Amino acid sequence: MSKGLPKRSENYSEWYNEIVKRADLAENSAVRGCMVIKPYGFAIWEKMQRALDDMFKATGHQNAYFPLFVPKSFLEKEEEHAEGFAKECAVVTHYRLKANPDGKGLVVDPTAKLEEELIVRPTSETVIWNAYRNWIQSWRDLPLLINQWCNIVRWEMRTRLFLRTTEFLWQEGHTAHATEKEAVEETERMLGVYADFAENWMAMPVVQGLKTPSERFAGAIETYCIEAMMQDGKALQSGTSHFLGQNFAKAFDVKFVNKENQQDFPWATSWGVSTRLMGALIMAHSDDNGLVLPPKLAPIQVVIVPIHKSEEDLATISGTVMPIVEELKAAGISVKYDDDDKQRSGWKFAEYELRGVPVRLGIGMRDIENGMIEVARRDTLTKESRAIGGVAAYIKDLLDEIQANIYKKALDFREANTFIIDTWEQFKEQIELGGFLLAHWDGTAETEENIKDETKATIRCIPLNSVEESGKCVYSGKESAKRVIFARAY
RNA sequence: CGGGGCGUAGCACAGCCUGGUAGUGCGCUCGGUUUGGGACCGAGAGGCCGCAAGUUCGAAUCUUGCCGCCCCGACCA
């Protein structure tokens, strides 16, 4: 049992914060709302980045990099986009400081005021589409499939490590297509990539769906999203993919000559996932002993802890362990043999559990005499004794089993907390207990807003796989053709 | 920007009501005993008690002002 970790069931946010801190993932920085990602947390993020990047490349995308600063005039060009982001922008107004003439320190030099203010990018559609004007001339230049890994700034009122920080890391894909159909296909393809990543790498089941107009990305025609359920029954939007129509092409006057030799505006998509996925990963799987990492994203997949009294014993154990380490490494498994003598083995057990290492091997003199080694699973917290010979091969399979089991656990949880709701009474009762509520909605923003005001529940999405089923809106009683997902969200 | 709370050792906090030697736990350093689930004993280091002014013989404690942080709302990937 971990010392002092709050219970998940008692105080979910405190539990989350403690895991982030104790597993050494991140901390608040001195800069308001900003986060320091620590080496262990960053190692997990790097694994996510690599897997996603490979998936982007496999679907034909290339990486590029665009500027951090957006001239204010760019942001103004697409009206809805401008309106949507205006409230949360960091603005650069000056380019120089000078010594304070009235005392110590520095002051902004009033003579160094910028002609035009620069916005620290809250997203890069505008800078990128401004560049695309020169990149796109002919249908032969399309599709243009670009991704950028970068940081962005959104001046949020309240922040939480990983889930919502003023500055965050993300990737943003920005594509241009000759036809609407192609762009819609791209939007859906990338949503599928995100769902694939969430489920197969993060072991986190997600619902793919469409956002309602009120939840749409500013400037988009349609916003697709993946929604995951956290262990407190709240929803977390984990990734979005937007069909932007010709809005940005028109705003930035990007035109191409099509096969019919006519001028046309290209069709756009944009899609992104952020360090928020780290928050999702933590909240989706962790328990009262700390972080639980899916093997595919664990920086250390297997840790080996020697249990010894003397130097001689340690040397004997190391002699037995090294061939196992080599065998695991040869199988592509990241393994750490922790023979550091500064901590006791019991301390190490707890520490690696806190950090979510999927498999721990414990070995002492008693085991060596019996030719055995102890294999402990992080996901089930079970231990078993195995013969040393063949343990490496066993672990290779075990890691796959753990990956699958973590996914199944999360899926079972989501299913157990997804409810078909038909009456407003049921709705109000269930929303207090958490979970996804599948209910009919009359399709109006007014009803959506009223439900939000009365229950704090929002429509997370209209699931892509939802079946046509006539019914009555849970709030207004008006006709409805399908159920949508309501939940409280992060 | 509204409502609530808190600033005391690296961290978590007690002390404040009722003014009088600045404390506890964790962590850290050293020594010893330990070592199969976050060891124990002993010794030690570490403080402008958020900042400023006031009341007082005397302020961590009372008063006023300021600053900072956290939580709850509005905002949001």
Describe this structure in words.
The structure is a single chain. The longest helix is centred in the last third of the chain and has 26 residues. 36% of the residues lie in helices and 27% in strands. A hairpin with a 6-residue loop joins strand 1 and strand 2. It has 14 helices and 27 strands. It has 490 residues and is an alpha+beta fold. The chain binds one RNA strand of 77 nucleotides through strand 13, strand 16 and helix 10.
**What's the shape?**
globular
SS-based structural class?
A: alpha+beta
Percentage of residues in strands: 25-35%
The first-to-last residue Cα distance is: 28 Å
Strands across the major sheet, in which order? 3-9-10-16-13-12-11-24-27-23-22
Low-confidence stretches: none
Radius of gyration: 26 Å
Largest sheet data: 11 strands, mixed
What is the overall number of helices? 14
Residues in helix, %: 25-40%
Q: Tell how many strands the DSSP assignment holds.
A: 27
Mean pLDDT: 93
Task: Reconstruct the topology from this structure.
Blueprint: H1 12-22, E1 26-28, E2 35-37, H2 39-58, E3 62-63, E4 69-71, H3 72-77, H4 79-85, E5 91-94, E6 97-99, E7 106-108, E8 113-120, H5 125-135, E9 144-153, E10 167-177, H6 180-200, E11 207-210, E12 222-229, E13 235-245, H7 247-251, E14 256-257, E15 263-264, E16 267-274, H8 276-285, E17 302-307, H9 311-330, E18 335-337, H10 345-354, E19 359-364, H11 365-370, E20 372-377, E21 383-387, H12 391-416, E22 418-420, H13 424-433, E23 436-440, H14 445-455, E24 458-463, E25 471-472, E26 479-480, E27 483-487
Parallel strand pairs: 3-9, 17-18, 17-19, 22-23
Antiparallel strand pairs: 1-2, 4-8, 5-8, 6-7, 9-10, 10-16, 11-12, 11-24, 12-13, 13-16, 14-15, 19-20, 20-21, 23-27, 24-27, 25-26
This protein binds one RNA strand of 77 nucleotides through strand 13, strand 16 and helix 10.
